[in-house]
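Friendly challenge for the regulars: who can give me the structure tokens for this chain first? No prize, just bragging rights.
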Amino acid sequence: MDDRRCRLCFYRYFDEIDTGVSGEVAAKVARLLRQMSEKVQVISITHLPQIASKADAHFFVFKEDAKERSYTNMRLLSQDERYEESRQNAKQ
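First reply, four minutes later:
Bragging rights claimed.
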């Protein structure tokens, strides 16, 4: 990534970055995201343990229905919860 451009960005957001990739390609994407995170904040929506495992923090995003409305929430996972979530995603 061009360092001059990175100085202008505070974060990079990747939604479903794992679509259509697996194995070594997923591992390479994970390494590239980790490298990028040394210069800017990286936010990635992923289901792949290869990518999620490189994160400093892992949030669980979920929806709740209440009084005919839906609410989207998120919470920071503990280390044990991160492990369990990655294990569950690896099975899929």
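The two ends are 32 Å apart (CA to CA). The chain has a mean pLDDT of 83. Your move, everyone else.
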